[in-house]
Amino acid sequence: MEKLKPRAIIFDLGSTLIEYEVISWDDLSAMCAESTRTFLKKRGFAVPDDEAFHEAFEAAKAPFREEASRTFVEWTVPQVARRLLKSLEIEEADGLVEAMFKAYYKPVDEHLYVYEDTVPTLKKLKKAIPTIGLISNTVFPEEAHLGELKRFGIEPFLDFTVFSSTFGLRKPHPEIFALAANLAGVAPKECVYIGDRYMEDIEGPSQLGMPAILRQKEGREYPDEMPLATRRISTLAELSEHIEF
């Protein structure tokens, strides 16, 4: 297969540059809910026991998640926190939602890590590719991720970032890829997108004619009908097999 010669490379974040799924998202969500419950309890608010609180948190998420699955309109944890407070009849005082999010996100922050080949690969790419960007589906405010990009030494290699929680739409919606191409200053066909999910990261950019490479994640389910011609890697270091740099 002939190597690609893009003018811009755009990365996914989770399970591509940084690993967030060290434990299952269901287990992590339960830990996040409990961290939030403990925070509210310490603040003196009357809250249900851990199981009931987790159920209330999931119930507050449900309408947002259902809409996102239909329309690709993104939801955020602070939105859920506001709905949760209302259901628990807790007044939303100044700064409470922001503080709740910090408590919620603490288990995520404690478990994530950067891949060993992330920064070395970015260093090599930066010398050869004019523009490097990022698109991330996330229900977390982008400030959390910007802090992680600094923490792991990724920020200096990125010319732009697009987070669905800020943009309002999530992958595979074509508008988020069109925005990234505009930020890169090139046509979609002159970009290469790299991510770990087939629908979001391969089918999404392909709608605009943007070439894509699938970073296959162990344990992730992929469609049986995935074309054999789909470019695939297991590690970022393998990008040199598909991209001229």
The topology string of helices and strands comes to EEHHHHEHEHEHHEHEE
Q: Major sheet: size, sense and barrel closure?
A: 6 strands, parallel
Query: What is the CA-CA span between the terminal residues?
Result: 16 Å
Number of strands: 8
CATH architecture of the largest domain: 3-Layer(aba) Sandwich
CATH third-level topology of the largest domain: Rossmann fold
Strand content: 5-15%
**Percent range for helical residues?**
40-55%
- As a whole number of angstroms, the C-alpha radius of gyration is 19 Å
CATH fourth-tier homologous superfamily of the largest domain: HAD superfamily/HAD-like
* The CATH top-level class label of the largest domain: Alpha Beta
Tally of helical runs: 9
Structurally, how many domains make up the residues?
2
Give the averaged pLDDT, no decimals.
96
Structural class: alpha/beta
Q: Give the overall shape.
A: elongated
Low-confidence stretches: none
